[in-house]
Amino acid sequence: MLTVKPTAEMLAEWKRIFEAHHAAMKPNRKTGTEVDQYFRNKYAHQIFNDAAFQEIVALNITENAFSRNKLPKGVLPNIKSYKTGNALVGIDLSTGEFHIESENIEEVMPLHDDLFVYRGLDEEDLKNIFLVAEYVKLMQN
Asked: In which residue ranges of the chain is pLDDT below 70?
């Protein structure tokens, strides 16, 4: 999870990791339903049926070209939302994209990283230097 403005050193490190690993990587992205099921099975949660939060999660997908392109043609986001601890979690069943909100970013970073690694990367993700580097670093931890 990127929480600071990238530096030249960070970019160089991402590129180094990308160059060392991307050619051997294969798409392994899970479906949105699989991500949702994984979350529900692993984390204590409560269903959070809040239309405003679900709309925020949907807009994060539809207003971001990279995320929007993961939607099948003619399909809209289908958001399931939950509370876990002090965090709100929205998972799109259509794409596997997820959104986490919390006042304490440090508290939710492990959750974000776990869902990110579990979800995996698709063909487009494997072309993204940051996503590949982040995935490799998290898999090595």
From this structure: 1
